[in-house]
Amino acid sequence: MIELKGITKYYKTGFGNTYVLRNVNINVREEEFVTVMGPSGAGKSTLLNIIGMLDSPSEGEYSFLDKPVHNLGEKERARLYQQNMGFVFQSYHLIDELTVYENLETPLLYRKIKGSERKSMVCDMLDRFQIVGKKDLFPGQLSGGQQQLVGVARAIIGNPRLLLADEPTGNLHSEEGEKIMELFCRLNQGGTTIIQVTHSEQKAAYGKRIIRLKDGWVKEDSSVPSVVMK
Question: Are 92 and 139 in contact (CB under 8 A)?
Answer without folding.
Answer: yes
